[in-house]
Structure formats: C-alpha cells, structure tokens
Design brief:
The complex is a heterodimer. Chain A is mainly β. Chain A has one helix at residues 5-12; strands spanning 16-20, 26-34, 40-49, 52-62. Chain B is built from 1 helix and 5 strands. Classes of the chains: A mainly beta, B mainly beta. Strand 4 (52-62) of chain A pairs antiparallel with strand 5 of chain B.
Chain lengths: 73, 97
C-alpha cells in the first residue's frame, strides 16, 4: 500500500495525530503540515504530560529536532 | 496539502504569519517565553521584544511527584532578546480566530 515514510506522512496530513517528543511530552492535534526537517505544524493542539492536559494551543510549531513520532487516532 | 484554514503549506508559514505578534515559545530546560516576534530564521533563532521568561524550577528533594509538589517559578523580563534556535521546542502564535 503506502510505501515510503514520506508517503505515510503525506497521507496523515489533516488527521489527528499524537506527536511524542524525546522528553516524553505528547502533543495531540490535527497535523496541518510538516517539512524536510520534520518541523511540524499542529492545529487544536493539546499538550499532555503523564496523561494530563497541561496546555492548549490553537496552532503550534514544533521544531523537528525534538524527536517526533506520530500516529493516527 | 491541507487548504483547511489559512493556506499553511509548510510549518514555517505558521511562524511567518506570527511576525509582529506576541508568541509563546517553549524552550528546553523548563523555560517558556512570551514576546513579540520580530525575526526568525531556518534554525528557529528568534528575535523577541518585550519578552518575559518563565523558568520552572522543580525541587526533586521532595519525593512527592503526585501534583508536582514543589515547583518554583521564576520570571524575568527583557526588552530585546535573541533566542538560539536549538533551544526551541515549540512556538505557538496567538489564536487566529
């Protein structure tokens, strides 16, 4: 089906995703776009620490080096 | 791509649209900033004016992690600030509603 990681990421734009940083903090929101550095823009973002919502952002830019891993929800 | 709201095609568009606006910046080392964004580059080096830094100092002596028992908060203000990009975790513009 979807071959490369790039194809997967293209397919997941516009969907709800969870981005986990190396620090263990999760950001949940709608993936609006990403670039070659894996910088990520999210909409309707919730910041989760240990399963607790600690912040909400309308939009959020996450710098790529913080280690993103995303998944469909 | 996703033409949903305001035609953001790459993450940096989000930052570009926030120029001259007050932004929230989350940094490594439990630091947060708000300030007016004047300039940025591809490393996410930032120039902020009227900036306020909030530093969360967690005291690990207390073994009470339940509600993050003892967190001290220090704040300081700076007129003009250069932020090196490698410390940036997240940038959030003011809500576009």
């Amino acid at each position: 089906m979807s071959g490369s990681p790039t194809d997967f990421l293209k397919g997941v734009v516009g969907k709800r995703v969870i981005v986990r940083l190396t620090s263990g903090v999760d950001y949940r929101g709608i993936l609006s776009c990403l670039d070659g550095y894996m910088n990520i823009a999210l909409e309707q973002t919730e910041e989760h620490v240990n399963g607790i919502v600690t912040n909400r952002y309308g939009d959020a830019f996450i710098r790529g080096n913080n280690g993103g891993y995303r998944s469909r929800r | 791509m996703d033409p949903s709201s305001t035609g953001i095609q790459e993450p940096f568009d989000l930052i570009r649209l926030s120029l001259s606006e007050r932004v929230f910046v989350k940094l490594r080392g439990d630091r947060e900033l708000t300030g007016i964004l004047h300039a940025y580059d591809g490393h996410m080096n930032l120039i902020l004016s009227d900036a306020e830094e909030t530093i969360m100092i967690v005291d690990p002596v207390d073994g009470n992690f339940e509600g993050q028992g003892t967190v001290k908060v220090a704040k300081r203000k700076m007129e003009m600030l250069f932020v090196r990009g490698d410390g940036v975790i997240l940038v959030s513009p003011p809500s576009r509603t």
